[in-house]
Design a protein that fits this description.
The chain contains 19 helices and no strands. It is an all-alpha fold and about 400 residues long.
């Protein structure tokens, strides 16, 4: 049988590349403010553009990936990632309006990241394997390792070379997708699903089970990203710990737990029931959100923030695998739609938490009533509201009855 080891390794690096794209620019936000006088509102636009372009790419890819083929599409994705990262370091220095240069770079590499997200999972899923859900979970763990590596190494690099040389860092990171682009030109790819065996998008969208899966995918993205995005600020302002501790026990420890959970399932998943594992993660996520918000001791809330990474670890790759088991002929449309709803959850989950936090802080007396500051009360309320997402997953998972999915 043909060996796909090199293909699997290239897919791992593909997800690492996506982690570079989504986590590198935020490390430079303070630098952008100081060097280019970028406002907080403009930074918000950079975040919105990055995820917005990825969502659009997820949708558009349905209509062209199968026509040009996976190999050309994944090479194109890496080429866009390389160009975007290089432009991130160059264009703000060259253009008279640095903000325009940042937007151009982000649009290009976000397009590459969106394509990678749509393509790498079905490439892994198409490779012959005794346990596809384990392979999918191990694949997605590399996003977590990438997130940790990018944040830590970029922070160390800036300390060594200084903020004035920040532009060299994205150019150096671009080497990884550049090398992987050439890898994808050579690695073997499994044959595409024959046209007659594909499940049409119209049939997918008309399926009640697929509708449940899409909603759960949205909830998975929201469950994962809400704590990931708010944990550092919540630790500092909501729990009163200093910024260094907040960063280490916030996004970094969250990513470590998430990567560990995915790697463990990737190794031992063949002995575990996928649907039962997803249910356990959803229940654990609900418990974590409640503990984060209501625990009387800061250390317990911080521990729950970290454990939320473990609770979220299987959700994204697990629902990919669950959907693939339900619809073996889903192909690109299946993974594209799941990615769209996952990204929507990543976008609106933290947004809803922020809206609730702002409302409670500025328009209620909850903080005074329970004896904490208005900001602390707002942050706790925002996080607590987000418990609705794992609860929805618990309810909907019970309605998935397809034999192939369990």
């Amino acid at each position: 049988m043909k060996s796909y080891k090199s293909t699997v390794k290239a897919c791992y690096v593909g997800y690492f590349t996506q982690a570079i794209i989504n986590n590198l620019a935020p490390v430079f936000f303070v630098v952008f403010q100081e060097s280019f006088e970028i406002t907080l509102a403009q930074i918000s636009w950079l975040i919105f553009i990055n995820f917005g372009v990825q969502i659009i790419t997820d949708i558009v890819s349905v209509f062209f990936v199968d026509k040009i083929g996976y190999r050309k599409a994944i090479v194109l994705a890496h080429a866009a990632s390389v160009i975007g990262l290089v432009f991130l370091g160059i264009l703000p220095q060259l253009l008279p309006v640095p903000f325009v240069g940042l937007i151009i770079a982000i649009v290009i590499y976000a397009y590459g990241s969106g394509l990678i997200e749509v393509l790498v999972s079905p490439i892994i899923d198409s490779i012959p394997s005794d346990n596809k859900s384990s392979a999918m979970s191990l694949l997605h763990s590399f996003y977590c390792w990438g997130q940790l590596t990018v944040i830590l190494l970029t922070t160390v690099a800036l300390k060594i070379i200084g903020n004035g040389m920040w532009f060299a860092v994205p150019i150096i990171w671009a080497i990884i997708p550049l090398v992987n682009m050439f890898s994808f030109m050579r690695v073997p790819l499994a044959p595409a699903i024959p046209e007659e065996e594909k499940t049409p998008l119209r049939k997918l969208l008309g399926s009640r089970t697929f509708a449940l899966l899409l909603v759960m995918m949205l909830c998975a993205g929201a469950t994962e990203m809400t704590v990931s995005q708010w944990s550092s600020l919540f630790a500092e302002k909501g729990l009163g710990v200093n910024k260094v501790v907040g960063d280490l026990l916030g996004p970094c420890l969250f990513a470590l737990f998430m990567g560990t959970g995915r790697a463990v399932y990737g190794i031992f998943g063949d002995r575990m029931n996928l649907k039962a594992s997803l249910m356990a993660c959803a229940v654990l996520g609900a418990v974590c959100y409640i503990v984060i918000s209501l625990a009387p001791w800061p250390w317990l809330s911080l521990a729950a923030c970290a454990v939320t990474g473990l609770a979220s670890s299987l959700l994204w790759p697990g629902f990919f695998s669950l959907a693939s088991a339900c619809y073996p002929g889903g192909g690109t449309p299946l993974f594209s739609m799941l990615a769209v709803f996952g990204d929507l959850g990543c976008t609106f989950g933290p947004y809803i938490a922020g809206i609730v936090a702002d409302f409670v802080q500025n328009h209620t007396d909850l903080g005074a009533y329970i004896g904490i500051s208005a900001q602390q009360a707002g942050l706790k309320a925002g996080i607590l509201t987000s418990v609705i997402f794992p609860i929805i997953m618990i309810i909907f998972l019970r309605q998935i009855k397809t034999k192939e999915a369990v």
